Amino acid sequence: MTRYFRSVAVAILLGLGATAAQAAAEACPALLNYTFPKLQDDTPQSLCQYRGKVVLVVNTASFCGFTGQYEGLEKMYAKYKEQGLVVVGFPSNDFGSQEPGSNKEIAEFCRLTYGVKFPMLAKSDVVGSGTNPLYKQLASITGEKPKWNFHKYLIDRSGQKVSSFPSTTAPDSKTFVNAVEKALAERP
């Protein structure tokens, strides 16, 4: 019997070792280790759910000259989501008070006006003293803070490499599409 129990114990320990190794491999990159409320209902959303994906982070606003970029962002999300792209919108009222509405009003606007299906998180600050922690880290990594609405940060699959694109870069611009496709082609 002792031989049997030793064998079982060894199997359990080997299984635990494999589980620990698997957990370490699936660990959340520090850049994605944040949780924010969902725009539609304040349900906490961990960005860790996007590990292994290319993440496009965009600060949005409903009453901006760039608001039409919602359409391009949604098209990009629909085209590339099966390849591992996720677009994450962060509504913000930081620039020109162009996002004055409540989370519910913003969600309705995005859904009804642009058919937005990509994940949208609750309204937050992306510059200034109340900047949300993800935006602080993105600005620190790239050396670039958003200067206006629809600034874009592209995070690679490993959660390590970040590219920054100004508001004037349209989602369908050749440069931007090439950067997204290159990030999607790379494996961590």
TrEMBL record:
<dbReference type="InterPro" id="IPR029759">
    <property type="entry name" value="GPX_AS"/>
</dbReference>
<keyword id="KW-0732">Signal</keyword>
<keyword id="KW-0560">Oxidoreductase</keyword>
<feature type="active site">
    <location>
        <position position="64"/>
    </location>
</feature>
<dbReference type="Pfam" id="PF00255">
    <property type="entry name" value="GSHPx"/>
</dbReference>
<keyword id="KW-0575">Peroxidase</keyword>
<dbReference type="InterPro" id="IPR000889">
    <property type="entry name" value="Glutathione_peroxidase"/>
</dbReference>
<comment type="similarity">
    <text>Belongs to the glutathione peroxidase family.</text>
</comment>
<feature type="domain" description="Thioredoxin">
    <location>
        <begin position="14"/>
        <end position="185"/>
    </location>
</feature>
<dbReference type="InterPro" id="IPR036249">
    <property type="entry name" value="Thioredoxin-like_sf"/>
</dbReference>
<protein>
    <recommendedName>
        <fullName>Glutathione peroxidase</fullName>
    </recommendedName>
</protein>
<dbReference type="GO" id="GO:0034599">
    <property type="term" value="P:cellular response to oxidative stress"/>
</dbReference>
<dbReference type="InterPro" id="IPR013766">
    <property type="entry name" value="Thioredoxin_domain"/>
</dbReference>
<feature type="signal peptide">
    <location>
        <begin position="1"/>
        <end position="23"/>
    </location>
</feature>
<dbReference type="GO" id="GO:0004601">
    <property type="term" value="F:peroxidase activity"/>
</dbReference>
